[in-house]
Specification:
With about 600 residues, the chain is α+β, with helices and mostly antiparallel strands. About 60% of the residues lie in helices and about 10% in strands. The structure holds adenosine-5'-diphosphate. Adenosine-5'-diphosphate binds next to helix 15 and helix 17.
């Protein structure tokens, strides 16, 4: 052997020894069958490589080395097949047959005493055992190479890359052994070339079995881009917690390549499941303290228990968790995956809390609408009676009333009108909320409708100077007369409410292009630009006018009605500068 070859041989031995030590360390850290088989296979193979350099010579010691190398060789094949079995399970029959074959071949190898020096002539039986040894080993390597490669198809990118790398690692091992077997019989140049290739295989093996962080990131990259988009949609558009949790699981699994996963809510109920039934998930969570792990009660970092990763979710109501079960095909979780999961969990917790908050707000809104509905209907009956009797008293239909009492009747009637008007707004608002506000549109003269609306709030306007500017010709539009009047009455009553008594209120009807406009202008307190943002919202009221009676429903309802007519309601105002509301509807063609 040339010095170069000797150095190369030594380098291969050192590299394999390093790889073997690494596998043993990772087995000690995670003592499961998968890590155990890998450590067994690579340690045995390293011993074969080391022992093979001691081959040759004769005598008891040389024979012992040869027998040990044979056993180690078979053990490495068995370990590699079992490592494959931990990813893609073999049938029990195959496992049994291969185990028996390996034991029998190993015993035969010792019995027939394979020659220590490979160049000495073999007996027929020795040749047969040698062929059988190489045959069974080749099976233990080639079969997993192909199976693992095939089973990578259609898997999430991390799993796929990981499985392919393992398959390439197996092929590399085969190459190393072939090189070791035939290198001696080739010329120096070819031996050198093959030994160099064998050495180059070691980093491939390392990467296959212990992929570094940067490589895992590269593997994840194609999925990361999709993930960012999906996360955005997931957080923004999930209607409820169950849906959000379900969608979150898809990605949690894909990011780290788990086989099954589920989400536990803060009360330990199962919120969503993937690849496992809800009852199995519930059983698992009952048996394991996922939400209150000993010693990790307050930790936020994901933690591993066996083949399970638990990712805590810090929810508003308490601690929840995403639990990911690594299946046979899943890669072993690394620190990088865990920190990725931690970031992911933060987003998901925020998303779940947002959905909770949204549904609470929605429930509150529903309660408000329900209350509006009930209160307005309950108030309507008694108010009709009160208004009826007040009008009868005022008209003298119930006999004489003392002059002092009679003097307050107009005020009482106007207050009753105000309350009735509020009740009417509340009823309309709850109809609108429930989608029951159907317009009954027909061709109407909006000048006439505006006059009627003014008539309806005359009492409210009595303290103001009302100036009406309407065209003499009818202005026709397809409107719902009652709803049209609700808008005008609301604008007029607001103008009266939010301006000092005695000031002018102008109402104008005009046509412009294909639209009719009703403008209501007052000289009142005005509305700042900032406050104008809340005017048209449900229950939206401006703080500065909170001393004036009102529900905050009128303008919201009015704008909705205007828009249902394909028109609009806009405001022009400023602090203390009076206000003009413009109500527009399309003219009849
Ligand atoms: P409200 O029943 O409170 O009057 P609206 O929806 O009709 O409800 O009005 C919403 C708020 O807009 C009022 O509370 C008031 O602060 C403000 N507002 C409405 N009209 C005027 C106006 N003409 N001048 C000044 N502020 C107004």
């Amino acid at each position: 052997m040339t010095p170069a070859l000797i150095i190369l041989q030594l380098a291969i031995e050192v590299a394999f020894a390093f790889l073997a030590i690494r596998t043993v360390v990772s087995w000690v850290r995670q003592p499961d069958a998968r890590h155990g088989n890998l450590a067994l296979a690579l340690s045995a193979l390293t011993l074969v490589i080391v022992l093979s350099s001691l081959f040759g010579g004769s005598g008891v010691q040389a024979q012992l080395f040869t027998d040990a190398a044979l056993i180690m060789f078979l053990v490495s094949g068995y370990g590699l097949l079992m490592f494959r079995d931990s990813f893609v399970p073999l049938s029990p029959g195959t496992t049994r047959a291969v185990t028996v074959a390996i034991v029998v071949i190993g015993l035969l190898g010792i019995i027939v005493q394979l020659p220590a020096n490979p160049e000495t002539p073999h007996t027929e039986l020795q040749s047969l055992v040698l062929v059988a040894t190489i045959g069974i080993w080749a099976f233990c390597i080639l079969e997993p190479t192909v199976t693992i490669w095939m089973s990578a198809r259609g898997r999430p990118s991390v799993e796929q890359a990981r499985l392919r790398a393992i398959s390439i690692g197996y092929a590399g091992l085969l190459l190393v052994v072939v090189v070791g077997t035939i290198a001696g019989s080739l010329n120096n140049f070819l031996s050198l070339l093959l030994s160099l290739t064998a050495l180059a295989v070691v980093p491939v093996l390392y990467v296959a079995f212990f992929p570094p962080v940067w490589l895992r990131r590269v593997w994840r990259q194609p999925e990361e881009d999709q993930f960012r988009h999906a996360l955005h949609d997931l957080l923004l558009y999930s209607p409820d917690r169950g849906t959000l949790a379900d969608r979150a699981l898809v990605w949690a699994e894909r990011l780290v390549g788990g086989e099954a996963a589920f989400v536990l809510d803060s009360d330990a109920t199962v919120l969503a499941v993937r690849g496992i039934s809800a009852s199995d998930a519930a059983d698992l969570s009952k048996r394991s303290a996922y939400l209150k792990p000993e010693g990790k009660e307050n930790g936020h970092a994901p933690w591993q228990s066996g083949s399970t990763v638990v990712v805590p979710l810090d929810l508003q109501q308490g601690r929840g968790a995403i639990i990911i079960l690594s299946g046979r095909l899943s890669p072993l979780f690394g620190d990088d995956e865990l920190s990725r999961l931690r970031q992911y969990a933060t987003s998901i917790s925020a998303g779940l809390d947002r959905v909770t908050l949204n549904s609470r707000i929605a429930a509150l809104e529903r309660a408000k609408t329900d209350f509006l509905n009930i209160a307005s209907h309950e108030l309507r009956g008694p108010m009709t009676v009160i208004k009826g009797y007040l009008t009868m008293l005022d008209a003298g239909a119930l006999g004489d009333v003392a002059p002092k009492a009679r003097s307050v009747l107009p005020l009482l009637i106007s207050k009753a009108d105000e309350v009735n008007w509020m009740i009417e707004q509340m009823i309309e608002a709850s109809r609108l909320e429930e989608g029951r506000l159907a317009l009954k549109r027909h061709r109407s003269d909006i000048v006439e409708l505006t006059d009627s609306a003014i008539e309806g709030v005359k009492l409210l306007l009595s303290g103001h100077e009302l100036r009406v500017d309407t065209p003499h010709q009818p202005v026709e539009a397809e409107v719902d007369p009652d709803r049209f009047q609700i808008v005008v009455r609301n604008l007029l009553s607001n103008a009266a409410k939010y301006s000092s008594p005695g000031t002018d209120i102008d109402i104008e009807v005009r046509r412009d292009g294909d639209k009719a406009f009703v403008l209501v202008k007052d000289q009142g307190i005005g509305i700042s630009k900032q406050d104008q943002a809340v005017l048209f919202t449900r229950f939206g009221r401006v703080d500065s006018s909170s001393h004036v009676q009102g529900t905050g429903l009128g303008l919201w309802l009015s704008r909705e009605i205007a828009r249902m007519h394909d028109g609009d309601l806009t405001v022009e105002s400023g602090n203390g500068a009076g206000t003009t509301f413009t109500f527009s509807v399309p003219l009849s063609p």
